[in-house]
User: Which sequence fits this backbone?
């Protein structure tokens, strides 16, 4: 009753108005779903497409089941410099595998890997790396592989930060994933990395279950152990090379729908971003630019972008992004915070 | 207050007890999630595993993200007799494709298909059918294929019932799918049929989105049309033959977890059922037996199962089912109703 009386006091409406303003601005600050993002065109584009696609009154509304967002991993959701995490895994697995197969001890490229000679390691060819991958990623059951990969990723650290690789995920990207899921999107990792490798930690690290990881995948072979128990063995036979054109092809195979939103950071993501952007209605393609040498890395050749060193993406990719309306995400200026531990 | 007084009336507790009983039994009747299933070991096994895997206090509890159930399609969730629906689709597509490629008019096996000669059609070899499949399922964009398949399935009818194929789904299986989803399970179709074909109607018919259809899949190829717009073409190159051992292999590729529950009806489902059953904790494998010639079909050779004609599954499969503890679902005795229109 006191409130009712006060409401008629002439000074009340104005102060109530300011109080309301204060409450609203606080509520907004509290509920900013992307607190690690600076205000700017990238953040704005993300918020705008989510609003448009989730509002039934909007012409770009997308029913929940078609809300698909895809994320490249290396360089897009976690650090991939100076060497891909999975390559480190393969190299570190070599001693254990050679111990079980001693006939490989003096066979290249395994001999070089065992030597630990960094200069020689740096010179390994792509073909050498493929041999190392075949040795360390195949020939065991899918369950044994999963257990090994889980164990390794739980303790392996990046030398620069002396932190687990899984801590070197980008906080702004984790926020985007959560924000999209809160708005009915299904989030997928679409990686050139090994599908089974990423599945070993995707749920824990990204909140993305194994069935939403699309990656480079080898065949498996069904068989029985001595006791007659069935199991699947990882075969050294490539089924899907999930990079470049393999990304949209993998998306079709595993998801069967065109993404509404896609994030990448390199030429390996070009076709996924093109394919996403070419869909009907609202679509958003974003490229993460590694231009922060202090907090992370600024890598790749400086190819004439004024003021930034652009990296794993080329001038041609940058030009296509501009022409096709993709958003550039500058780690330096768009991200207030890069890692959760900062 | 009146209630409080009545509660002390000697006759009250008993009548309240009966009223409560009545309410409970009504609620149970109303909420039976599997009304088309007769009481029996199959229904009981389904209800029991759902209770066990969703009850945190149960030693067989399964966290929601690991609740995966897989369903074969042809003969398990809809009628596949006398000929697989997708084979009908391929045969009926031949005239339109040959019209666009008249040079095939006198080439076998297309010539035979165009002749409409039933006796000759029945003699087509597996190799002929593969040629027909390659002609009618590849060479177009994934979007064009989807549009064609959607259009066909919306009007194609089964000659025996003169009803849409999509109406010939088994009502008890639709109930199981819904019941499992209501209990946090992700439901998948795992079919020897074409992945893209089944995806064209799976959401509408089964409530299963395209990304939860695992099927026989061909490669696609990324390219650009004349205006520079990217698209994916269906290639005549097999990536995954999702039958027999290909089922667990496809499950690993597309889902990455072992199912808790799997349904099949033939030798093509054997490995999927074995693989499911071999997992830790509670697992359930079920085989649908086509033993109802009146309401559906009783097909396959009568191979000595007393009193039933067993079909697309062999005596060896039946023996394995018994030995390994799979449940047999008799269409005749376990299903009160087969189709929703009955």
Assistant:
């Amino acid at each position: 009753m006191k409130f009712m009386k006060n409401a008629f006091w002439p000074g009340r409406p104005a102060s109530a108005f300011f109080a309301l303003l204060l409450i609203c601005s606080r509520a907004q600050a509290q509920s900013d779903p992307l607190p690690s993002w600076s205000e700017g065109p990238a953040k704005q584009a993300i918020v705008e497409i989510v609003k448009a696609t989730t509002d039934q009154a909007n012409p770009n509304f997308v029913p929940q089941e078609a809300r698909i967002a895809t994320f490249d991993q290396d360089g897009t959701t976690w650090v991939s410099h100076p060497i891909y995490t999975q390559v480190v895994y393969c190299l570190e697995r070599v001693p254990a595998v050679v111990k079980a197969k001693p006939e490989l001890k003096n066979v290249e490229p395994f001999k070089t890997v065992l030597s630990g000679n960094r200069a020689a390691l740096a010179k390994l060819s792509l073909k050498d790396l493929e041999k190392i991958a075949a040795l360390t990623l195949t020939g065991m059951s899918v369950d044994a592989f999963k257990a090994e990969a889980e164990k390794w990723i739980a303790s392996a650290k990046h030398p620069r930060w002396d932190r687990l690789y899984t801590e070197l995920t980008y906080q702004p990207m984790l926020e985007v994933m959560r924000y999209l899921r809160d708005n009915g999107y299904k989030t997928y990792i679409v990686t050139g990395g090994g599908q089974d490798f990423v599945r070993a930690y995707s749920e824990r690290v990204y909140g993305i279950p194994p069935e939403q990881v699309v990656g480079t995948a080898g065949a498996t072979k069904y068989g029985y152990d001595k006791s007659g128990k069935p199991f699947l063995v990882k075969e050294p036979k490539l089924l899907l090379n999930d990079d470049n054109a393999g990304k949209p092809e993998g998306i079709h195979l595993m998801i069967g729908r065109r993404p509404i939103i896609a994030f990448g950071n390199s030429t390996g993501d070009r076709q996924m971003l093109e394919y996403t952007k070419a869909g009907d209605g609202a679509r958003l393609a974003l490229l993460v630019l590694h231009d922060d040498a202090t907090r992370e890395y600024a890598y790749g050749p400086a190819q004439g972008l004024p003021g930034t060193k652009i990296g794993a993406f080329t001038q041609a990719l940058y030009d296509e992004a501009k022409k096709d309306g993709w958003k550039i995400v500058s780690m330096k200026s768009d991200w207030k915070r890069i890692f959760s531990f900062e």
